[in-house]
Structure formats: C-alpha cells, structure tokens
Amino acid sequence: MNNVEAILILIVVIGAFFMPIISRRLNLPSPVAEIIFGLFMGLGFKDIIHQTDILNFLGELGFIILMYLAGLEIKFETLKKLPTKEILLYISVIILVILISFLVIYTLNLAYIYLLVLMIIAVGLLFPVLKDAELTSSNLGQSVLIIASIGEVVSLVAISLFFLIAEFGFSEQTLFRLFEISLFFLAVYYLLKIFKLIIWWYPEKFVFLFENDDITETAVRYNFVNMFIFVSLAALLGLEPIIGAFFGGLLLGIIVKEKEKIIEKLSAFGYGFLIPIFFIDVGLKFNLLELLKLDIIYNAFILSILMLVVRFMASIILYFSKFSFKEILIIPFALSMPLTLLVAVATLGYETHLINQKEASSILLTAIISGLIFPWIFKNLVKRLNFIQK
C-alpha cells in the first residue's frame, strides 16, 4: 500500500464512520448518505481513484458480504407457517410485478435491463424503515417482509439469468450453463443437508460452530469459507461473484435454523466496515456532475414513478385478502425501495458494458431517489393513517 492509497482509505473510513451519524440527523438511509459521500469525494480524487486497486477490492468484498447476508437473512421457516392461500397471494403479487414491468418496457420500447430496474424488490432498506416505523412485529410488517423476501429471491435469480443470457445469448451454451448451475446448487444443497444430519447425530463434535464465546470465532470463519466456496465456484461457472455469495448464504440459511448469532457477528463486521466502503466506492465510480444533468434527473424520476406505479397495480390483488384499503395504499411504497439491488444492476450493467455511463447514472440516481423519497412517504403515511403494532 502506498501513501496515496493509505490517505484515500483513511478518508473513506472517516466518511464511513460519520455518514450513519449524519444520516440519522437528516433522516436519510445510511447507504444513500454513503453513496452521496462517495460522489462528492469523487470530485476531488477522480484521477487518484483510478490508480488504486485496494479500494476497489475492499468495495467488492463489501458487496460480496452484503449479498451473502441478504441470502442468509431470508427466513424460509416463516413461509412454512403460512396458509397455502396466503403464500400463493404473495407470490401472485411478485408475478404481477414482473408481468406489468414487462408490459411497461414493451410499450415504452425500453432496453431489457430496465425490466430488472422496474421489477426488482429488496429487503436491505425495507427492514430498517419498518423498524423505524415500529412495524416489524406487526401483521402488516411481517407480510411486507415476506413479500419482499420472495421478491428478492426472484430478483436475484432474474439478475443471474439476465447477465448470463446477455453474455451467451439464447444458445445451447446458456442452457448448458443453467444445467451446470442447477446441478451444482442441487448437489451443494444435499451436501449441506447431509452435513446438518451429521451435526444432529454428533452435536458434541461440532459445538464449536455455534459457540458464542469462542475466542477463535470458528463459526465466523466457517461462514467465510462457505461464502468464498460459492464465490469461487460462481466465478468458475461464469457468474458474477455476488450471485454465488447470495446463494451460498441462501442455502446455508435453509439448512441452519439457529443463525441469529452468526448473522449478528457477520453484520457487525460487514455493516461496520466493508459494506459502507462498497456504497462509498459506488459513489466514487460515478460523476456527480453527470448525475445532476437534467436528462438524467428526468430519466431517474420517470423510472422511480414507473416503479411505484407497477407496484400499485400489482398490489390491487391484495384487496381480496385480509389487508385493509389503507394497508394496500402503503404497501407499494414499502416495495419500491430496492436500493442495494438497483445499485447492483447499475454497477454490473456498466462493468459488463451492457449500458453506458449515462444509463448507469440514471439507474443509480433512481436508486438514490427511491431510497430517499419512498421511505419518507411510507413513514409519514404510517403516522398519518395511525398504524399500530398488532
């Protein structure tokens, strides 16, 4: 590490420390504040950034941990407790989001990458927003989290398929790759099931994996091994590393039910250091002056509005369920803040040359706008409509 890299990392780490404090005072989501910090930082260090590798490495590692945690945190055991009719209703919302998004891009003659922009749903920003609104334990909050979790899995599968097809097209090679990937994940799933069975039969031999006071943090090390196995194999299969990380967390989360402690430890490391660096690094890769151009601002607002309209139309089906009219009114806002995945689409699309910087900037600004405006509207509607925990 040279002197320039050391100073650059110091500034990034200082920014990562202060951004959550500033964002709380301004009522902003922390990732949005970190991206904005990166954008401003890029104005002064634009030439230096392209000469440093360590910041890109730390940012990519933060992205990988973010996606691993996204997979690990999905609670499939909650789905098992729900009535079949309710699960089908939630899945119907996601299917309608996809169909309406496709109809919109077909009607407006938009590039297919905008199908991802309009349809993706994520839990990353939604959970803290629900927590701040004191709705995480309510029926409404739990229902929204379940819909968003299903949507996030579908979104990441869609992102994987999109970039795979974008690279190989609709060809035999694509089908062969899909077969390889399906076979691989199926094999890993059953290996993890066998591993779980062995732990059940011989718990005393594997107690170190779940000890909370283990000074060597073996459980954390095991999760990093699991994560990088999937990251490496995803790279060998021609997939983006973050997709491997997500499915690595997802499969382990399906097998291991008692995962709260390890999530807490990984989150402390990830959100405390590497994940903020990823969001700052995203801001550094884009030009703030480019984002402030009128056509990019216009495109971002149009995309944000279309995203919300798609979810309003899809949520109409919830009228035939237990939800009240005012609940159906705010659910589209809760499902319209896929900040992390929008950033992923913008970053991956630009890095793989599927979109130019102007298009990537529009998608990134859409992530920022939807991450600022929709949570604010959601929280204000919750207050005005007098929602309470129930």
What does this structure look like?
The structure is a single chain. This protein has one domain (73-272, 291-384): Up-down Bundle (Na+/H+ antiporter like fold). The chain is 77% helix and 0% strand. With 390 residues, the chain is an all-alpha fold. The radius of gyration is 21 Å and the shape is globular. The model has no long low-confidence stretch (mean pLDDT 82). The longest helix has 30 residues, at 139-168. The protein contains 17 helices and no strands. Helix 1 (3-26) crosses helix 12 (260-284), helix 3 (54-72) runs antiparallel to helix 12 (260-284) and helix 5 (84-107) packs across helix 8.
Please sum up the structure shown.
With 390 residues, this protein is mainly α. The protein has 17 helices and no strands.
| N- to C-terminal distance | 54 Å
The percent range for strand residues is under 5%
H-E string: HHHHHHHHHHHHHHHHH
Provide the CATH topology. Answer: Na+/H+ antiporter like fold
Shape: globular
- Oligomer description: single chain
Give the helix level as a range of percent: over 70%
Overall structural domain count: 1
**CATH architecture heading:** Up-down Bundle
Residue-averaged pLDDT: 82
Characterize the biggest β-sheet.
none
Low-pLDDT sequence parts: none
The Rg value, from CA coordinates, equals 21 Å
- Give the strand tally: 0
Number of distinct helices: 17
The CATH class is Mainly Alpha
Structural class: mainly alpha
Domain Cation/H+ exchanger transmembrane: 14-382
Membrane topology: Multi-pass membrane protein
Protein name: Transporter (CPA2 family)
Keywords: Antiport, Ion transport, Membrane, Transmembrane, Transmembrane helix, Transport
